[in-house]
Amino acid sequence: MLKMKLLVLILSVILVVSLAFNVYQQSTISSLSSQNKKEEMASLLLHDGASINSELQKLDSVVLDACQKLSSAGLTGAAAEQILNEIYTQNSDIIVNAATADKNDILLAVQPSNYSDIIGEDITDQEQNIEMHQTMRPAVSNLIQLVEGFPGMVMVAPVFNSNGLFIGSLSIVFLPYELIHPIVKDSVQGIYTIYALQKNGTLIYDDSPEQGKNVFTDDEYQGYTELQAFIHNVVNMQSGYGTYSYFDDLSPSRPLVNKEAFWTTIGIHNTEWRLVIAHTV
User: Fold this and answer.
1) DSSP secondary-structure letter at 246?
2) Which ranges of the chain does DSSP label H, i.e. alpha helix?
3) Do 136 and 116 contact (CB within 8 A), yes or no?
4) What are the pLDDT tens digits along the chain (281 aa)?
5) Which among 87, 232, 236, 269 is placed 20 to 30 Å from 242, CA to CA?
6) C-alpha distance from residue 66 to each of 71, 95, 158, 165, 171 (Å)
């Protein structure tokens, strides 16, 4: 009888130890999985951010090279039209059009020709032109309403003649979705959400209908204080990590879930945007 009690006691101890070990093992695996997920998120974000900045640098090089050509060719005429057409045809996967404007910001020529109805439009009040005139250097807008009739972004650079006199500008219009989506789409993996926003809280990229909406002012975000607090941190700091609760965009039913996210900064010519990668916890 004593041996039986001792055996039961030993088996009980073994069972408790086994259960404790299993709990510890599962906890360790969960902890490692969480850490691995964070490391993967950070790695994907840095890679995609660098790739987006690289594309912006390529566009910048295209614009500056064309400005040199326009310096000799002039801002109108067959030679100028050919330069604009080359810019568009070689980068049509990203840019909408390329145009020249005089020193008073009146559009003079544009390619492709189906945008010729914007010739003569005054773009003096566009933010990138205001900055360009102040610095006489290239500038990039945030998401603005274009004379083409839709929201987009503009990269502009001054054009000088052979004597170094300012004669006008060259600008390209591009859509942030076309710039960002081809780079980040493979990183999502059906697991993550990647989006980008301006420092005023406007989403410039989101693979959903929320693109173009402002997290701070649009009605659908009111009441989601955790999300808005997180976005305040995002726009105020160039990079970081945080958590918030919001809808799960990867689920058709869109339940309210907890998320963790990293962010970094992308952009060019003093224009900064934030790129965010988020994951449902």
Assistant:
1) E
2) 2-73, 78-90, 127-135, 176-188, 225-236
3) no
4) 555 554 444 444 444 444 444 434 444 434 546 788 899 999 999 999 999 999 999 999 999 999 999 999 999 999 999 999 999 999 999 999 999 999 999 999 999 999 999 999 999 999 999 999 999 999 999 999 999 999 999 999 999 999 999 999 999 999 999 999 999 999 998 899 999 999 999 999 998 766 789 999 999 899 899 999 999 999 999 999 999 998 776 677 777 889 999 999 999 999 999 999 999 98
5) 269
6) 9, 15, 11, 17, 10
